[in-house]
Amino acid sequence: MSANLESGFNFFIGLGGPAIMFIVLTLLALLFGVSLSKSLEGGLRMAVALTGMSAVISLLTEAFGPALKHFVASTGIQLSITDLGWAPLAVITWGSMYTLYFALICFALNIVLLLLNVTETLNVDLFNIWNVSILGLLINFYAHNIVISSIFVLFIYTLMLLNSDAMKPTIDELLNYEQGNISTTAHPSLLIAPVIFLINWLITKLFPFIDKFDFDADTLNKKIGFWGSKFAIGAYLGVFIGILGQQSVANVFKLAFTGGVALELFSLVGDWFGPAIEPLSGGVQTFMGKRLRGRRLLIAIDWPLVASRAEVWAVANILAPILLIIAIILPGNKVMPLGGILMTVLTPALLIVTKGKVIRMTLIGTILIPVYLWSATLVAKFITQTSIAMNNIPKGFGKGQLFTSIDSDPLEKMFAVICGQGINSLDLQKLAISFGCLIVYLVLFAWYYKQMKKRTH
Description:
mainly alpha; three-stranded parallel sheet
């Protein structure tokens, strides 16, 4: 019996991430009362999105892989790890059965916290559970302890929900929402907000005059126009890497065009994931709404809720060249920014904390960029080895070549690696560092939470 069960499980895993998610999302949506056609639509959209994202990654890596090797060899700059943006992490996590497990325990925790009045937020942004799942997978990669991994995931998820509650008043103000509006945002990338809040507070204390030099983001975006688009930024990167990698003129053109289309396709295909999860999210929302009648319920969705603010994109364009310069000169960094060159994992949190002050957003973003680069360097081994184990290695990568992601939750990822390594080797020093960092962040989060709540008055 056990042999048959193991054989069946191996067959299911062998179907691959897209097929697994097609089956699982369809069944989950049906379980929450979604119609058969909508359930099938959501499952199919997810499978197509995962397949499409893998294809875009392969397009980028096949074109840029040789040029990046020449770039390292010709410049001596050891940016030997390629940043592929958030896509590899999403593919890894949604191709793992652990993600479904983490989604289940997080959903159960959300219900408990709602019933206990600890939070007002119901997170229906189920797709982005992968941002939390990757932290659990990261700890488990080093510690081989699913219990510790689960506790850490639940801890991060609790902070995420509380952070959503705390940001609600500011989001209302920024987007001109009514006080009773049920929309809010709960994306793990926004957990950098307490650190941003601290730096913003220091700027206010030390440089109170800085806001006199602020400017209108809409005007800046109009002046930049096409030259700040994803097409253009991808082309700049292609030319930059092609020239430093001593490529032929024909190859420089090819890299420029491939970079432009890849960055645009990352955004386009990325937009497919939201509609894929909508049937299940809607079913969960309806299910919970019937059981919490009379309660104020904040419905948590993805960060693009605030994407209508021009400051998000103006600062992303400003930070892109700054990110590239810092990557080249930063000690300890080995990552060449590529897929994550637009820092949309950071700019929404900058917007909410500073209330859209462009000078502050740019300054704080520049200060925090090294943390994202160091984190991406640190997790490259995990991302590459896990992708190889899942037979999901992008085309164009040679043996021993690493790739990574300049993505959200850099502090949490660094904590996960240090904590996982400490547990695995019983390294008291690493465990002490982990515990110390945890205490400091909790104190900072408590102060930030209290201050953000005061914005209601």
